[in-house]
Inverse folding.
């Protein structure tokens, strides 16, 4: 049986890792062992942060909507409740964009939400 030499495969794998580590500082872009560790960690951070980005954007949208609601004299919770009861299915991304770029349309949404939202203290009196 012939001897199998895998040097070519190993070199290819090493070069792939070093290619991914391009731009890293110090030995991390030159030496395979350090580069491999850095690339593995980078992959873990990227995986984690792809999920984190979704949370961060949602938090940003809620903050922007809340600030615009305060300018219009309504709380964020009452605004969302009013929109839900009015049957408006606009997501927070669009609402945040509307609050920043089209204040008059956002004010109309606030008026619609105000009509359908329960006033504070009404639920306590009804119960």
């Amino acid at each position: 049986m012939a001897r199998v030499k895998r040097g070519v495969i190993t070199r290819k794998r090493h070069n792939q890792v070093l290619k991914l580590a391009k731009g890293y500082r110090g030995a991390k872009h030159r030496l395979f062992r350090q580069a491999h560790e850095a690339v593995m960690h980078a992959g873990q951070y990227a995986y984690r942060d792809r999920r984190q980005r979704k949370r961060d954007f949602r938090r940003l949208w809620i903050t922007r909507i809340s600030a615009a609601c305060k300018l219009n004299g309504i709380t964020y919770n009452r605004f969302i409740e009013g929109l839900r009861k009015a049957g408006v299915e606009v997501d927070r991304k669009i609402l945040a964009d509307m609050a920043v770029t089209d204040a008059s349309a956002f004010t109309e949404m606030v008026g619609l939400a105000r009509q359908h939202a329960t006033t504070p203290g009404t639920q306590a009196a009804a119960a």
The mean pLDDT is 93. The radius of gyration is 27 Å. The chain has one domain: 7-120. The longest helix spans residues 32-71.
